[in-house]
Amino acid sequence: MFKNIGKGIKAYFGAFGLLSKLKLWKYFGIPILISLLTGIFFFSMAYVFSDNLGAYIAKIWMWDWGSETFLVISNWIAGLFIIAIGLVLYKHIVLALSAPFMSPVSEKVEAHILGTKAPKSEHSSFGKLLIRGIRINGRNLLKELLFVIPLIFLSFIPVIGIVATILIFVIQAYYVGFGNMDYTMERFFKYKESVQFVRKHKGVAIGNGIIFILMLFIPVLGLIITLPIAVVAASTETVKLLQREGKLQEAQPNNETKAIA
């Protein structure tokens, strides 16, 4: 799996150049706007509500001595909790709403790798791509929250907290990588088949997600460049996986992604 994580990370090295070479930036105007607005919203929520949640947490401290210090700590804990949950929500909201715009990007990357002419983006309608994006990322969001919320509380326990924090990072990376890979898989696999494919290649998903999350912490710029670079990197590696397994020749667009006549 570690080898595949390396492949998922390595795919980023040529992604930025490929964005310009294939003239893909034009497809990311609306997704970048979605990313910016969603990111600003969740950071604002952390700023506005951290004090309120912190005051609520501070009530567990029943003594007068050290109460002010504990309140400050509680505010920090509350802020981190909101940001952590906000990051989980942010990723899946952006990935789901961007789905209809990513199909032509993935198709052009595929055509570039295979040395063929990029087809017109006719595999599915805007609505079907959006529904699939919401379905995939909604499923991933629920599963991620199921694992992450308990781990967030465990992360404040000494020693155990280190392991919990690492697990939170890896889990988030896996599911965001899944979402990025599905922009390519939607043309070849049905919903359940996509889940099975990513499980088989979970290392690639984790590798893609690791860089995605790290790039988000670049102030402002991270909200702009992360999605385009991550999607191209994921598309590049997913096409290579499909090619190695012979899926590009064997698979045909499924019923979810047939062209609309």
UniProtKB/TrEMBL annotation:
<keyword id="KW-0997">Cell inner membrane</keyword>
<feature type="transmembrane region" description="Helical">
    <location>
        <begin position="210"/>
        <end position="234"/>
    </location>
</feature>
<dbReference type="GO" id="GO:0019344">
    <property type="term" value="P:cysteine biosynthetic process"/>
</dbReference>
<dbReference type="Pfam" id="PF07264">
    <property type="entry name" value="EI24"/>
</dbReference>
<dbReference type="InterPro" id="IPR050480">
    <property type="entry name" value="CysZ-like"/>
</dbReference>
<dbReference type="GO" id="GO:0000103">
    <property type="term" value="P:sulfate assimilation"/>
</dbReference>
<dbReference type="InterPro" id="IPR059112">
    <property type="entry name" value="CysZ/EI24"/>
</dbReference>
<protein>
    <submittedName>
        <fullName>CysZ protein</fullName>
    </submittedName>
</protein>
<keyword id="KW-0812">Transmembrane</keyword>
<dbReference type="GO" id="GO:0005886">
    <property type="term" value="C:plasma membrane"/>
</dbReference>
<feature type="transmembrane region" description="Helical">
    <location>
        <begin position="69"/>
        <end position="90"/>
    </location>
</feature>
<keyword id="KW-1003">Cell membrane</keyword>
<dbReference type="GO" id="GO:0009675">
    <property type="term" value="F:high-affinity sulfate:proton symporter activity"/>
</dbReference>
<feature type="transmembrane region" description="Helical">
    <location>
        <begin position="145"/>
        <end position="175"/>
    </location>
</feature>
<keyword id="KW-1133">Transmembrane helix</keyword>
<feature type="transmembrane region" description="Helical">
    <location>
        <begin position="27"/>
        <end position="49"/>
    </location>
</feature>
<keyword id="KW-0472">Membrane</keyword>
<keyword id="KW-0028">Amino-acid biosynthesis</keyword>
<keyword id="KW-0813">Transport</keyword>
<keyword id="KW-0764">Sulfate transport</keyword>
